[in-house]
Amino acid sequence: MPFKFRSTILFCFVVCLFTYIPTLRAQNEKLTATASETTVANGDQFQITYSLNASGKGFKAPSLPYFVVVMGPSQSQQMQIINGSVSQTLSFTYVLQATKEGVFKIGAAEITVGSTKIFSNPLTITVTKASAQSQSQGQSQGQGQQNQKSGEKNNTIEGGGKNVFIKASVDRTNSYQVEGIVVYYKLYTKVTLLNYAISKLPSFTGFWSQDINMQQQLEFHNENYDGVSYKVAEIKKVVLFPQRSGNLVVDPMEGEVIARVQVKKQQQQKNNDPFSQFFNDPFFNNPFFNNNVQDVKVNLKSDPIRITVKDLPAGAPSEFSGAVGRLSCEVSLDKKETKANEAITVKIKISGKGNIKLIESPKISFPPDFESYDPKENANINATTAGVSGSKVFEYLLIPRSPGEFKIPVSSFVYFDLDKKQYVSTDFPDLLLKVTKGDGTNVTVAGSVQRSDVQLLGKDIRFIKTHDPDFEVSLTPFYGSALFYGLVTTPALLFLILLGVRKRNERLSGNAGQIKSQRANKAAMKRLSAAKKYLSSNEKEKFLDEMFRALWGFIGDKLQIPVSDLSKEKVTSELAIRKVDESLIKQFTDTIDSCEFARFAGGIADSNEALYQKGIDIISKLEGSIK
Fold this sequence. Notes:
Elements: H1 3-28, E1 31-35, E2 39-41, E3 45-52, E4 57-60, E5 67-82, E6 85-98, E7 102-106, E8 110-113, E9 116-119, E10 123-128, H2 132-141, E11 164-170, E12 174-176, E13 181-189, E14 192-200, E15 207-211, E16 221-225, E17 228-242, E18 246-250, E19 254-262, H3 274-279, E20 293-301, E21 305-310, E22 324-333, E23 337-339, E24 344-354, E25 370-372, E26 376-384, E27 387-400, E28 404-408, E29 413-417, E30 422-426, E31 431-436, H4 457-460, H5 482-509, H6 512-518, H7 520-536, H8 540-559, H9 568-577, H10 582-601, H11 608-625
Parallel strand pairs: 2-10, 12-21, 22-29, 23-31
Antiparallel strand pairs: 1-3, 3-6, 4-8, 5-6, 7-10, 8-9, 11-13, 13-17, 14-19, 15-17, 16-17, 18-21, 19-20, 22-24, 24-27, 25-27, 26-27, 28-31, 29-30
């Protein structure tokens, strides 16, 4: 056989072999789902395992809406060599807890092997009514089942005492109206925490709030509380300004953690199996070998705090508009001489420490022939545990229309000084401005005329015509023309249109909630647009804040739920009543969880771009599903 012919046959054989092997491997690789039990009692725990007889990446678990994930996924990899043949197994294990009776289907999991996606077989789990024995056993083992009765706090774990809880504290419980109060929310724990999320933020009813910037990642330190040592991390800090006097309440914060805890040892029969004795050795004291360690979900809720707010002292000057703190005020003109019809700027800058964002500008009395516009406001605020400080600038644009020398009076700036416990007034001299004649396009206006009602007198007065006028006769009669009928019917049509608009507004004005519901999508898209800008400029914190406001604002407006009542439980219940698909409900809560986890724990399962797309997707789907 010639050498070239043999080489060609060998080349074809090698090509076929390498083409066939990946196909054969793809056919032999399987992702198998198994359950420790397919029939369990309500409240019992069971285990599901996904096993792959190869190496893969990008494992995606199915949705588990009717089960609580107590632990997982726990990943393990095994390799065996038998008679020179190498085999490997990749496993993902979950410990689930049944929460509802019925027959439930767990969908297929997904993993990528090479460039091929492989899917597991589905599982069917039957959940029966909980027996008295299983209920007693579940209570004795303390497996994270929390009591949901009103007024009870789910912040303890089996073993007694407070092992993990949220504590709210304030720097003062007595305050003047609009005086800043710093609120701290801290997470205390004596056990290992695997995950943390805020399930309900306080609404701060009766307060105006300013968040204090914090690091995205929780930082724990040792702290002694009630004689017990804890690991403590600050999860939120905010400055509150009371908007009314009386007894106000700082709302609780609610959250949940996954805690790794030791479970009470149950009495067991003696086991002489040497393998059991080997694995009970303290060397294997970890969740994979020690049955006395479990991951438990714990619901947390801080205590409400009562604040006594006093009215500001009587006798406030008429110029007082609510400024409280330690403040200063400056007033200036950008130039003291200008020409008619040229713009000038009056700038008022208020700086110091206090409720700066709520401060109003002192009143300015402009001359009648000055054209003035609403001020442009710019606030530069920094919130810390020492309070809120910074500055706020008001810029007024003015256009003098006639020459002359003018005085611009500015009213006094009055604020309540917290150190002196009295009202402090800052007086300003009149601003002096000299206006010279302009370039001649405008003529001086006699008398007091506002906004230059007469500007071009030289062009408004025309010479008298002395010759006889030439009149043209219209060949087309006006009566009966299209213009005639148009002018006759237009008022009637406009009247009917205005009447319809008025009736619609009267109907909608009686239902503010319905108006909010109709405009929910538009408001959410506006917030998402702002979030997109922050995403493009890589401002992660502002991006996540806008995403959070867009999601909660949309669902609150759409379902007509007040901000104070917004919670995942309330939203889930309302969406279920409106017969929204369960997958959409879960997609919404998952998106909220991703935002909260990224904002307060510093980590996120999805990229910011992916989170943005998820937000747009779920809002669009809910807009079409909520009736």
